Amino acid sequence: MNSPVHCLIASSKGGVGKSTTALGLAVVFARAGRRVLLVDCDVSSRSLELFSGTADKALFHLGDLVLQRCSPEQACIVPFPELPGLTLCPAPSRLEESDILEKFPGGFPEAIACGCRTLVSNAYDVILWDTGSGYEIPRALASLAHVALVCTEQSPASIRAAAYTASLLSDVPKVRLVICSFDIDAARHSERAGMLEMIDRCNLKCAAVIPLDPKMMKAQENGTPPAEKLPAMRAYANLAKRLEGWDVPLFSGIRGMKRKHAL
Ligand SMILES: Nc1ncnc2c1ncn2[C@@H]1O[C@H](COP(=O)(O)OP(=O)(O)OP(=O)(O)O)[C@@H](O)[C@H]1O
Ligand SMILES: [Mg+2]
Prior knowledge:
The protein is an alpha/beta fold. The protein contains 12 helices and 7 strands.
């Protein structure tokens, strides 16, 4: 039996690939038979409900849990019937803001950390927290995590945000970089940052390079789990194995990501 993986997925910048990474990893782990809890801590966008086609289907969410309006079991749903091992706890809604502020003077970060502590259980092999943009929620959850995945894409602002986010997560035993939506052609033609430049600027070990893959977006629009054979999902499968302690080459099984091109 592998030891549990408790992983937070962070970047202070929006739109860099955090939710895609959280859901991609959750699907990969669930397909491998792991019991997975995916927690949407992103109050502002609640993307995981959209990406999993469950928007408005859940009766309760993390906000109800912290306000003691439901049990941990009631706060969660199984988003994909074909993946019964994957459980999602949807994000709190802004509608609860005044109730949350009344109970938690530290606001959403304090409330979310309280809810997430309640959800930690050895009923799960893997717990993934999608922390949304900003840095307060990742910091509030840092003490729960074994590993933080700091996401970036190739824009200078996103690389800067990754370096900054990582600097705030020194309490997490392992902090790793995940390069999302990597456009290898743009890097090859020096139009966008290359991998080494990004790793160097963030000063982090790189745990995965996820290729730009338009079919990932399509799956999110349809609210379906992305197919196993997509290049991005193969990269997430490699990342999942690395998180469980396996030594997997960065580009194993991913077409078009030859090392010599990528540097
Ligand atoms: N590997 C990929 N290939 C193509 N598109 C991708 C990939 N990863 C993410 N995207 C797209 O990039 C956009 C932003 O991704 P995502 O929502 O995961 O970012 P985020 O960091 O969670 O954003 P937010 O901070 O707003 O929650 C989405 O439209 C998503 O479909
Ligand atoms: Mg998101």
